[in-house]
User: Which sequence fits this backbone?
């Protein structure tokens, strides 16, 4: 998988996941294709790219490609600029049967939400593997 950003870890992914949480350091270089046309002269990381980073981290944690069934409760609170240092944290949410995520930077919370995988790992299964968003 080719990533359009850099992802690093302070601890091995497996050891952190055993505690119900994984965390990664993220940096999106200025020349990342994600910034192409979004927006000329004022580059901002698109929201779909942020959700893609969450999905990539979960796939890495489970060591396989997994479809997304649903994304909910997403809040974009700040813009992400090129070269900004980010921390992506994903926690299991056993009660909801999904994963809660947050992206933070030097100025605090950037994006939060929940993501449900379609393979049943989260306690709920979307058998058709479709992607949907919900407002909650």
Assistant:
């Amino acid at each position: 998988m080719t990533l359009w950003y850099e992802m690093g870890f302070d601890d091995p992914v497996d050891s952190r996941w055993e505690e119900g949480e994984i965390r990664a350091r993220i940096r999106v270089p200025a020349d990342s294709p994600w910034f192409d046309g979004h927006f000329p002269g004022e580059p901002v990381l698109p929201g779909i790219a942020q959700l893609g980073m969450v999905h990539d981290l979960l796939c890495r944690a489970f060591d396989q490609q997994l479809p997304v069934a649903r994304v909910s409760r997403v809040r974009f609170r700040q813009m992400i600029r090129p070269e900004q240092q980010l921390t992506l944290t994903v926690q299991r949410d056993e009660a909801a049967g999904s994963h809660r995520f947050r992206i933070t930077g030097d100025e605090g919370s950037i994006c939060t939400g929940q993501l449900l995988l379609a393979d049943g790992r989260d306690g709920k299964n979307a058998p058709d593997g479709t992607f949907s968003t919900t407002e909650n």
User: Anything to note?
Assistant: The first helix runs from residue 13 to 17. Residues 122-136 have pLDDT under 50 and may be disordered. The domain at 6-134 is CATH 3.10.129.10 (Thiol Ester Dehydrase; Chain A). The CA atoms of residues 73 and 113 lie 5 Å apart.
